């Protein structure tokens, strides 16, 4: 009888051990199969090249996060968000369009962070023989000038502000060809469709088809500041907030610097 009881006892212990192992295996499987989180980022076109490295840097500590990016002019992106376009994060090339969403109570205010800056430069195609070395030397004898649409493209708005400051806007206004974003503006100059153009220094740095002729004095326009914020409609608040905060880390700032951005 005692032997039978002992055998039953051992059998029960074995069964409990198997259940325990099964639970541990299931828990481990659930951990390894952690649900993937998608963050939709609406970002200024000037951030296109840097964004891949920034997101890879973030994923070192957040391997469960994947990104879907929407690049364009800050104004166009803000308008898309206003109209209901899905996005978790907005990264603007100026304060104006972030302020627009803020006024409409579409961002999580405490997540708003300034994370970078830039400079406005005058460029020409690499093979151009144009000798202009300052904004002040631009005259109405110049051909076509590429510029982001000042109404929606921050780079164009900054350039217009600088030209008004040095009293060149009215003289040159009829020569402007407006791009839908800074990427298109750069292409106009790279292709030779315009003689010169105004872009960010970060864009000029990454192109082997253009050269910088001159740089705008930063006192000619509002400070170029890139703010980022989480949008109120996000379903991934913690992860979105973590990414915006990551942009101000040493690692992210080094990446941005490598792509020609300055803070």
UniProtKB/TrEMBL annotation:
Molybdate binds at residues 46, 74, 155, 182, 200. Gene3D superfamilies: Periplasmic binding protein-like II. Residues 1-17 form the signal peptide. SUPFAM superfamilies: Periplasmic binding protein-like II. One of its GO terms (biological process) is molybdate ion transport. Pfam families: SBP_bac_11 (PF13531). GO terms for molecular function: metal ion binding; molybdate ion binding; tungstate binding. PROSITE patterns: PROKAR_LIPOPROTEIN (PS51257). The keyword Mitochondrion does not apply. Keywords: Metal-binding, Molybdenum, Signal. It comes from the Bacteria. Belongs to the bacterial solute-binding protein ModA family. This is Molybdate ABC transporter substrate-binding protein. It comes from Niallia nealsonii.
């Amino acid at each position: 009888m005692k032997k039978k009881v002992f055998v039953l006892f051992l059998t029960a212990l074995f069964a409990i051990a198997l259940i325990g192992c099964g639970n541990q295996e299931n828990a481990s499987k659930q951990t390894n199969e952690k649900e993937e989180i998608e963050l939709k980022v609406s970002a200024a076109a000037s951030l296109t090249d840097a964004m891949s490295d920034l997101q890879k840097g973030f994923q070192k500590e957040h391997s469960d996060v994947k990104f879907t990016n929407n690049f364009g002019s800050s104004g166009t992106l803000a308008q898309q968000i206003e109209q209901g376009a899905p996005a978790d994060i907005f990264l603007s090339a100026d304060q104006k369009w972030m302020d627009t969403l803020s006024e409409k109570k579409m961002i999580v205010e405490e997540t708003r962070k300034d994370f970078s800056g830039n400079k406005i430069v005058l460029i020409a195609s690499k093979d151009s023989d144009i000798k202009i070395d300052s904004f002040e030397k631009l005259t109405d004898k110049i051909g076509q000038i590429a510029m982001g649409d000042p109404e929606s493209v921050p780079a164009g708005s900054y350039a217009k502000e600088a030209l008004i400051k040095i009293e060149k806007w009215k003289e040159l206004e009829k020569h402007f060809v407006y791009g839908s974003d800074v990427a298109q503006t750069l292409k106009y100059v790279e292709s030779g469709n315009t003689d010169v153009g105004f872009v960010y220094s970060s864009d000029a740095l990454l192109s082997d088809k253009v050269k910088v002729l001159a740089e705008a004095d930063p006192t000619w326009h509002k400070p170029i500041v890139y703010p980022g914020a989480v949008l109120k409609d996000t379903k991934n608040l913690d992860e979105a907030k973590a990414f915006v905060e990551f942009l101000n880390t040493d690692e992210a700032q080094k990446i941005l610097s490598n792509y020609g951005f300055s803070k």
